[in-house]
Amino acid sequence: MGEYSMSTQSVSVPDLIRLVGGVTDTFEDVPDVVLVPPQPAITSANPNSTDGMTISGRFMSFSSLYEPSRGGATNPLRGCVRIVDGYTMMQTHWQDRPLVERASEEVGMPGDAEQPVGPLTRSATRTFFGAPAVDDLDRLDARVGFLGVPTDQGVIIPFIRSGAFAGPRLVRETRTRLRETRPDGASAGWFDIETERHYLEGVRLADCGDVLIAGGDMPLSQARTTAAARKIAERGAMVVAVGGDHSISFPVGRGVAEAHGMVDVVHIDAHPDFADSIYGSKLQHGSQLRRLFELPSTKRFTALGLRSVDRDQYEDMKRLGVGFASTRAILEEGPRAVVERLVQPADKLYVSIDIDVLDSGLVPGTTLPEPGGISYRQLRELLAAIATKGQIVGFDVVETSAAQADLATAMTSAWLIIHFLTAILS
Ligand SMILES: [Mn+2]
Q1: Which residues lie near ion ligand 1 (Cβ < 5 Å)?
Q2: What's residue 413's pLDDT?
Q3: Confidence of residue 410 (pLDDT cuts 50, 70, 90)
Q4: What is the pLDDT of residue 159?
Q5: 159: CA distance to ligand 1 center in Å?
Q6: Which end of the chain is less congested by CB atoms within 10 angstroms, N or C?
Q7: What is the CATH number of domain 128-425?
Q8: Where are the domains of the chain?
Q9: What is the three-state SS of 235-261?
C-alpha cells in the first residue's frame, strides 16, 4: 500500500454508496495498514443535511444516514476510506461499535494532513482514451466521436475464427499517453518526445458508446451502425469507429456518407475485401468494401497494402478502375510515394484501416494475421500522407480480435510453405 493524503471533501452519501457499490457495517476486510486512529473532531460537510459527510484523515463521517437494512433507522455513521490502486472504496462503521481495535494509536501516516487528493473515483467502465462518455447522440458536441461496433457477425464462420466482437473493449482497456480529460471537457492531449511537441490538447473527444448489436440480425445491426455513424457525423464530429470485424466499414462508411455527401474512400488492408459475395452473402467481412465502392456517394476508391488477394477480386478491381497498391509496392516505393501516386486530393475522405495490413508479427491478435506486412512506422507514414489529401470525415480501425496469438504463427508457416513451393516450382 502506498501513502495517502486526504482533505475534507463532500460527496453526497447516495452518490458515494453508488460509486463504491454498497455499504457494510464491519471492517472485517479492511487491511490494517489503512486503519488509523479516529480523528478527534470531525464536522459534517453539511450538518444541516442528512447526506452531509466529511472525509478527515482516512475516515469519513456522515451527519446521518438512512439505512433500510437497519430497519429504516437514521444513524450517525463513521467510515473508513480504503484506497486500492487508485480506486477509492468505502466501508462504514456504526459509531457505537469499536473502531480502533485493529488500529494503532502510534500509526502516523504520511499525508494525513489536510491535503488535496484529487478525484476519489473514476468511472468503472473505461472510455476510448479517457474521453467523456456521451449517451445521447443528439447532444453530442465534440470534434471526434468514437463509436464501438462490437460485432463479428461478418466473419466467414467456420473458416475464420471470430473474436473481433471484443475489439472495442480491448482498445478501451489500453493505456496510452492520451488518456486524460481537462475539467472543461476537452482532451489534455499527449506529449511526443520525438517531435518534442504536445498534441491534441483542447480537442473535444467523446466516447459515443457501442452500437447495440442485434445478435443474428445482420441487417438490423448494420442499420443501427449506419444511423449512429450518420448521427455522429451530423453533429459535426469526425466518426472514429472501432470494430469489430471489417464488415462494419460498409454501414459506418454509409452513415458518414449520408451526412457528408460525396466522399473518397481509402482502404488499407492486407486483403481487398472486394468480393461481390462469399458463399451467397454480400454483407460479410470480405465484401464490405465492394458494397462501399458501389454506393453512389463514393467518388474515388483506393486500396493500399494488399498482399493476400484472390485473383477474381484482383481482376474485378482492375476492371472497375480501383486504384490499388500491394504491400510490395509500399515497401519498394515508400508509403508517401504510393499515396502521392494513387490518392487524389479530395474534399472529403473516409479511411478504412484493417489492422492486418501490418505484419502478422505485430498484430497476432487480429482475425486473419498475414505475414510479410508493413511496419507500424510505415503505416503511420501512409496515414500521415493520406491526412494531407483532404478532410478526413471518418475512419475505422477493425479486426482487433481476442486470443488468436497462435494463429499468427500458423499463418506465417502456411504462407512460408506457399512462397517456398512457389520459388521451387516456378
Ligand atoms: Mn484484412
Answers
A1: 269, 271, 354, 356
A2: 74
A3: confident
A4: 76
A5: 14
A6: C
A7: 3.40.800.10
A8: 1-122, 128-425
A9: CCCEEEEEECCHHHHHHHHHHHHHHHC
| Predicted local confidence at residue 115, as pLDDT | 73
Q: What is the dihedral of CA 259, 263, 268, 270, to 10 degrees?
A: 90
**Sequence-ordered strand ranges (E) for 229-347:** 238-243, 263-268, 298-306, 323-326
pLDDT 10s digits, 287-321: 999 999 999 999 999 999 999 999 999 999 999 99
Between CA 172 and CA 75 the distance in angstroms is 41
* Strands of 343-417, DSSP E: 348-354, 391-398
Query: Which H or E run contains 362?
Result: none
pLDDT higher than 80, residue 157? no
Cβ–Cβ under 8 Å, residues 321 and 342? no
| Helix runs in 53-189, H state only | 167-172
The CA 234 to ligand 1 mean position distance, Å, reads: 29
Q: How far is the CA of 46 from the centre of ligand 1 (A)?
A: 59
- Inter-residue contact 393 to 266 (CB < 8 Å): no
Q: How many A from CA of 213 to the centre of ligand 1?
A: 21
Q: Which amino acid is at 124?
A: A
In three-state form (DSSP H/G/I as H, E/B as E, the rest C), the secondary structure along 348-360 is: EEEEEEEHHHECC
* Ligand 1 centroid from CA 368, angstroms: 7
Query: With a threshold of 0.70, does the pTM exceed it?
Result: yes
